[in-house]
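Homework help board

Subject: predicted structure for assignment chain

Our instructor gave us this sequence and asked us to write out the predicted structure in token form, then describe one feature. I got the tokens but I'm not sure how to describe them. Can anyone check?
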Amino acid sequence: MNLRNICIIAHVDHGKTTLVDHLLRQSGSFKSHEAVDERVMDSMDLERERGITILAKNTSVHVGDTKINIVDTPGHADFGGEVERIMGMVDGAILLVDAAEGPLPQTRFVLQKALRSGHKVILVVNKVDRPECRDGRRTQEVVNHAFDLFLDLGASDEQAHFPIVYACGRQGWCTTDFNAIPALVSGERKGTLKPLFDLILDHVRAPAVSESAEFQMLVSNLAYSDYVGRLAIGRVTSGAVRKGQRLIRHGVNAAGAPLRQNFTVTQVLTFEGLKQVEIPELEPGDIGVVAGIENCEIGDTFAGAESVVALPRIEVEKPTLAMVFSVNTSPLSGKDGEAIQSRKLRDRLLREVRNNVALIFEETPQPDQFRILGRGELQLAILIEQMRREGFEFMAGKPVVLYRQGPNGGKLEPIELAVLDLPEASSGEVTRMFQQRKGILIKFEPHADHSLHGKPRVRLEIAIPSRGLLGLRSKFLTVTRGEGLFSTRFLGFEPYKGEIPHRTTGALISDRAGDTVEYGLLGLEDRGVLMVGPGVPVYEGMVIGEHNKENDLNVNPCREKKLTNIRAAHAELLVTLAGIRKLSLEQCIEWIDEDEWIEVTPKNVRIRKKVLAANMRSVKRSERVE
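My token output:
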């Protein structure tokens, strides 16, 4: 079989999933009468809601007598573990870059992985129909930036001579001729994605296959079927496998020691379009699915004989953040979902860690609390949201940065490069905001012809500690009025930069259980910003708002108006609450302090103090945060 294995790598929102849609349509993967949704590769509800790719997914198309396996990779750096583990499955990559925004930090992160793996890359400059790219100058600048990026990342001479394709993924056309872009954008000429298909066949090499006749496959991804159980996905490096064949699993146990296990293959599948199709034999070089073993993990090697050795396990970059997950101990536990015991919470977290090599599970001294180490806030927020939708009730703590010890015994902390694309009018306030969190401005680059609605824009590059980014994203969007673009990439570890102020305000905390009353909340509006409205069940220790001052304040939101024999004035009927600030899950993660929990249920997200009783905790920040 003629084969090509490629992945598509891009920054968030550069049009990667939309381009895959048209690759599938134009290759004939769908029948003419078949109704197909947009962004078909975004199979998770969370991916469709947020407009981002979270999990790496496989598909395939046929061009003539050649099968092209395509792996769609996430563009966000928090899901870099998904990228690192699939680089061994492919032999080439399509680098998708926005024609106006150019290469961004997460593009750099993924491209670096592809170049280190020795893959040839095809550059696709997408969205050339954008108004700021009509004259072609910005598009040429982006191509030059991409070439500089290849050189910065140490690309070989062969890799640096990459072919360039100009595309409009939304309309499903591309061209290798820069001068043909105006005619295609205006509609004078009709275009297709055939130039890109031809480049994949010519530029990407066929998969290298070992001469050994014995079967060998590295498990790079996992899936589940209600009919046959656990499915192991990977690329066959040598030999072939059939249904009923006996294989050996080379894995590791909980202590990291080598483990061998025999099993029988119950089903062999391959990818045809978006479907998994059962086949009699999986050939060498192809990406396929093997069923028949329940307890396999990513990084395991399947071998067809005793003489076949295990392949090197997949290695990913170490986590930089940690978050504690706990059993829900609040008075409202079990009201919205399933009040799970520590055993169920532990099993669910371990299942996630087995499927995601970028996460690490750790026990804590408390038997009902567990620690998850991950790449960033978004990755941990996605895990919390998935568990919430499965019906679990639990609590999550404030994310904390993982420090390292330096060679001289000093404390090192992770540093990230924040790349900000924003209106020039907001640059002063944004720079000041980052400098307050120990950020150092490295680059200030005006975009003369990259403007939005006539407003000049600039691009800033700021090196900032990872802990300084906690809670900064929402403030950045507020300052830029939603027009700013914010992306980061990990730089490395540097000496500790000193204290960074996190939250300068305290919390308004309910001092009793009951339902909130509008009259009681009206009396609290002058004290801060409320997070709950009237008629909401509360309990002692639950946070109901943000205090204006630094200290916490215990308040009574359930206070009712006392009845008297004096007739009420009509003016009182018109008094209403000024407004409620309801926090999303991500905003809660950014807002909480070390002495607070986020209580997560299928219906509600609440914030509470770790110590509920008012007479058992201090309201002073200096005492409660230590």
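Reply (TA_rk): Your tokens look well-formed. For the description, you could write something like this. The radius of gyration is 27 Å. That's the kind of observation they're looking for.
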